Predict the structure.
Amino acid sequence: MIRKKDEINREDHANKFGGAGYITVRSLLTGEEEMYGKGRCFAHTTVHPGSEIGYHMHHGESETYYFLSGIAEFNDNGVIRQVGPGDVTFTGDGEGHGVKNIGSEPVEVIALILYH
C-alpha cells in the first residue's frame, strides 16, 4: 500500500482534551484494521502556536510521541519538561500527559497509540 500525502485523512480539532487553540491530525494509518488490532493511532500531529493538547489519561493503552519540530512543554504525570526536535516521550497505561506549544512555530509530532 502507498498512501500519497493528498490521500491522508486530515482533521482539525479545537480544544483537544480541554486544551487551548487547535491541533491538526493526519492519520497515517486508518483504523485498527491497518494496525492489526494492536493500536488505534499512528498519526502526524501539529500543535499550532498558542495551542495545546490538554492533560488526559490513557487506560488500556500507551502513547509515544516523537517530536519533529517546534518547542513544547510536556506534562508527564504532572512533571513539566521542555521538549523539542528528536525527543521521544512515552505515556504508559494508567498514566497521563499533555503538550503545550510554547514557541512561535508549529510543534510537529508523530504519535503512536498501542493497546495493552
The domain at 34-39+55-116 is CATH 2.60.120.10 (Jelly Rolls). The chain has no helices and ten strands.
